[in-house]
Amino acid sequence: MLSRSTSFSSRKYMPGDQYVVTGSAAIGGRFIDLGNDEIVQPLLSAREKTMEPVNSRPSGYFDPTGLMPLRKAVAKRLAAQTGIEWTAEEIVITAGSNKALLYAALAVLKGGDEVIIIRPWQPEVPPLILALGAVPVFVDAQRPRYTPDVSSIRAAVTPRTRAIIIHSPNNPTGAVYNRTTLHNIGELAIELRIWIISDECYSSFVFTGFHRHESIVTVHPGVRSRTIIVNPRSKCLAMARFRLGYLAASAPIARAVGKLQSRAGTTPSPAVQEAALYHLKVTEGHVERETYNWLVSARDIGLHILSDLRDVAPPRADGAFFFYLDLNRLASALQADGRIGATNDIARRLLKETNVGCVAGDTFGDVNGLRLSFGSPPEAVAIGLKRIVQALNSLRLEEPQVRSHHTEDIDMNNSLRP
Question: Residue 303's CB: how many other CB atoms inside 10 A?
Fold first, then answer.
């Protein structure tokens, strides 16, 4: 049974909705949103330049697999990134990476098939697999790096296993799978004839090693014919609301996905595709570099602040734009005192006492985790994280006791504000 997804912000959400209020990370505001999963940055001039050609696009029907010039540009960019040739016939432009993930699953799965998912997972993945009549099989990532153990993946494979979904750089953990892990997953997929769906949503954001993403098809070219890559273009441009992504796969899979998309009627608008094409052909990666440098600054600030945590190990944040805290040791101690029931309780308390939004790990199938985004402006990230560190460090200093209603009603925001 899927665990209930939980998030904490200043408004109420239905169970399963992991998002918090967007656009509320303004400096000086009472509430700081470190629970978002998009980048909030003032790149208005870059966005305006990217949008310059949009108004000149004529109206009318167009190829449901995407504009040919854009598919060619994506294929060229992907070839440069992976070291493997791609053609426009192997690319389908989609309305975001989630749509690409859906089409990938529809193309290779049938009812009763099993799909291996690494936990912590992205919240939308298990429900998607279940909706298709397939069966999610969970394999836990290994702490503290949160990378999968290939022997554990092998142990989870049955005759009904059809695919494995990998996600590196990872949301929520920020993990980046190393070459050995990727190669061994590729070997396993070839040996057991299973599909690899590689979610490379955060491929533009790798902060360790060679500071560049390595796809599984780069590490193990032999899995290219068994791999479907899904990726957004709008994420790396800090324009997640454009909902533009792509799917890359062998030509037969791409043709099947194109047919699915032509019936679904959700191809991205020509205007958005033109904007992405303009970025790929004209801006020469300027927006991506600006976004990356923005995140590097926020990450450096955040890691320095989080190094002051006492009962919680500081995160690695090798990729994506999330700090993922393992609260197991702290929560266990507080549970022994009878003061905290679970990490969800810690997250609720953080919101109440610090006015900082975060996402409890239960949203991702991990009762021990807490996700904090550094996609907000660095100044907001610094203020929010200082409050979080102060609040977490103070939990073990308190005497075990039942707090009165009067104490719970005290507004702690000013006392915890740096």
Answer: 17
Residue among 369, 315, 373 at smallest CA distance from 343: 369
Looking at the chain, the domain(s) classified CATH 3.40.640.10 span: 54-283
Neighbouring-strand partners of residue 123: none
What is the residue-wise DSSP string for 264-325? HT-PPPHHHHHHHHHIIIIITTHHHHHHHHHHHHHHHHHHHHHTT-SSSPPP---BTTEEEE
pLDDT of residue 53: 55
Q: How many Å apart are CA 219 and CA 201, to the nearest integer?
A: 18
Task: Average the pLDDT over 300-310 and give the result.
Answer: 96
DSSP result, 179-208: HHHHHHHHHHHHHHT-EEEEE-TTTT-B-S
**Which tens digit of pLDDT belongs to each residue from 149-199?**
999 999 999 999 999 999 999 999 999 999 999 999 999 999 999 999 999
The matching CATH number, chosen from 3.40.50.980, 2.70.70.10, 3.40.50.720, 3.40.640.10, for 54-283 is 3.40.640.10
CATH homologous superfamily of 7-39+288-416: Aspartate Aminotransferase, domain 1 (3.90.1150.10)
Q: What tokens appear for 226 in the block?
A: 């068994």
| Stretch(es) of the chain classified as CATH 3.90.1150.10 | 7-39+288-416
Q: What are the pLDDT digits (tens) for 89-130?
A: 999 999 888 899 999 999 999 999 999 999 999 999 999 999
Helices 328-337 and 378-395, axial angle in degrees (round to 10): 40
Counting beta carbons within 10 angstroms of the beta carbon of residue 146, is it exposed (0 to 12), middle (13 to 18) or buried (19 or more)? buried
Give the span between the Cα atoms of 25 and 23, in whole angstroms. Answer: 6
Residue pair 248/217 in contact (Cβ under 8 Å)? The answer is no
What is the spatial distance between Cα 54 and Cα 273, in angstroms, rounded to a whole number?
9
Instruction: Tokens for 276, please give them.
Output: 């992405």
pLDDT, tens only, 50-103: 556 555 555 555 788 999 999 999 999 999 999 999 999 999 999 888 899 999
